[in-house]
Every structure is written in C-alpha cells, then in structure tokens.
Amino acid sequence: MSAASTNPVRRAAPAAALGVALFVAACFAPRIGLYTGDAPADVKLFQTFGERFLAGEIPYRDYFVEYPPGALPAFVLPALGESGSYVLLFKLLHIAFGAAAIALGALTLTLLGATRQRRYLTTAFLALAPLALGPTVLNRYDLWPAVLLAGALAGLVGGRVALGLALLAVAILAKGYALAVLPVALLYVFARHGRPGLRRGSIAFAATAFLVVAPFAVLGPGGLRHSFSIQTSRGLHLESLGGSLLAAADRVGIYTAEVVGGFAFELDGTLPDVVATLATLLQLAALVAAWVLFKRGPATPQRLVVAAAASVAAFAAFAKVLSPQFLIWLLPLVPLAGGIAAPALLLVALGLTQAFFPSRYRGVLDLEGETWLVVARNLVLVALFAALAWRLRAQPEYTTNPPTAIRS
To answer: What residue segments make up the domains of the chain, in order of their start?
Structure first.
C-alpha cells in the first residue's frame, strides 16, 4: 500500500478541495454577503477594537472589550489593511476560517474511517449549509472559534492529545461555548491514553490558556474580569427558547412582554428573570446528560464527535442568550456526527433563522408574527439536541475502516 493511500491528510485532500471550492463559490452568492457592502454594527465594533489595538492601546485596560482575549485575532488581522477595506478584509478572513473548518472536517472524517462517499457528501454539506443561514455567516466572528474547535477535534481523533487540547483552550478563550466540549474531551483522552495522556493534554491546555490570558490579566485585570462577568449576568434574551415562549404568550394575550435593549434585546420583569434561571438549570442538565451518555459508552472517536456536537447543541438550544450567529457553532460539528436526522434538523434551523434575521428582525422585536419563526427555530434546536443525544445513546455506526492516527 502506497504512502499516499495511507496518509489521512492526503486521502482527505480531494474531498477537502471540493468542499473549499464549493464554500468559496457559495460566498459569492448575494445572500451570503461578500459583496453586499453591508457593515453591521458588530463588524464596525470589531474594527474599532482592531484599530485601537494596532494604535498601541491595550484591550481591557485602555478600552472595554466584551469578548475574551482569544477573539482578538479575528478583530486585529483585518485592521492591518486600509480602514476603508476593513469589512471586505474581515469577510475574506472568515472565508479562510470557513475553508479551514471544512478541510479539517474532511480530515476528521478520514481519521474516523469514513467511506469515500460519506467524505464527499458530508464535506459538500459542510460547504453549502452556510447558504441556509445567509449573511450572518460572514458578518460575525464565530467562524474563528468554530475552526479552532474543529482543529481540536481533528487533533484528538488523530491521537494528537496535546495539540487537540491546546486548540480547545484557544477555542474556549475565543468564545466560551467551546467549554461545553471540554468534559467529553478529557473523558476521551483519559479512556484512550490513560493518566499519562491526560496529564500531557492538561498541561498543554493550561499552558496555552495561560499564554493567551496572562498578558491581559496583568495589564488590565479589572477590564478582563468585567468582560467575563457580564456574559454570565445577562438577562433573558428575546430569541432564546424561554424568551421566544414568553413572546408567544404575549402574542396570544396571556402575558405582556417588555423588550429592553442592552448587549442584546432582552425581556424585562420578574417572570423573565425566573425563566432565565430555569433556562440556565436546563442548559446545565442537558450538558450533563450529554457528558454522562458519552461516559457510559465506549470512548470511540466517532462517539467523541457526536458528544461534542450534542454538547454544543445543548449549550445553544437551552441558553438564556441565543443569537443567530450561535448556529455557526454547529456547522462544523453536526454533519460529522453522521445520520440524516441531525443534519436535516440543522438545515431547517438555519433556514428558519434566516427567515427572520436580519431582514425581518424588526418584527421579532415588535413581537409580531415573526415570533412564531423564532419559536419554531428554537423547538427545532431542541429536537436537534434530542437527535444527537439519541445517536450518542444508541450503538454508533462504524465504517469498515478503523480510525487512523495523523502521521508526522
């Protein structure tokens, strides 16, 4: 057998090339927004962060940043160009992130021993599914933590424990949702590589996190602490599962909802505060359920991928804050889990999100008929989590080829 046929990177390359080509082509579609000239408030804010950083100001000390330190590269790199080109450069950078996530998906599938047909079909899905979400894909920075998490999974599946957990640390510090995957990653490493592997991976994780956080913890500890604390103290987001159900209650006349602005549009009042607390408890219960289901079965690479997808789905579906860009987190994960139900549900959730955001978002804020689109999307996300949890509980499907390690 030739080296080309056994090397997983080379075997993944044709499917990866197809996926990247399809994704780049999709980004030229009008609904994705590469050439729409659209510059939403988030991107303008990112430009401010990047330009002030390059001007010598220290994030968290000299100016407030609500995002964790690992997010900064996504803001700073486009600011290296001309100020008037920031939006285009930001989108081009995120096309690169998306392409890298697709290539890593193809590699992970190869490492899992997926058939040639599955590699091509899944990679094509990874490339074209963003069309269903629309311009949100390139107008937020969430492809950055998504590609980091995709790299972490590829590393773990390929036996590169230290690399996988180091990338997971950066992913968590780019956007906190990746923390949902840490327990299953540690369980997987311990089961597959024992205490020495867990110790090696934990050191890589801790050292990477320290290197990313330490400079800002020293230079701007108060601002850094505040950036983390505000994420946990937010109220019930209108688009969350609980928020959308209260908005629906307003629509049918059994509750009067009050929408207020802030970091996001939230519902004000005692009942929304109670629902926010319940949502957090439900989110935690769903996450623990995914982790326990993984622990009760064999620690195979395929089950790791399914558990990662289920954990992120739980984090998004039951959170007290749920923005359209959160669905980007699921794009590199759910298709790798296998089966038809979960990818189909993801596609429906993406389409329902684009149905109300951004073109009809005013109707959501005004508690008009678009409320039902949000409710439907959120129920689909709950069904997506259930489908992934069931797949994790059931005996997973295996291909005839065993997983192979990445060779140096």
So the answer is: 3-393
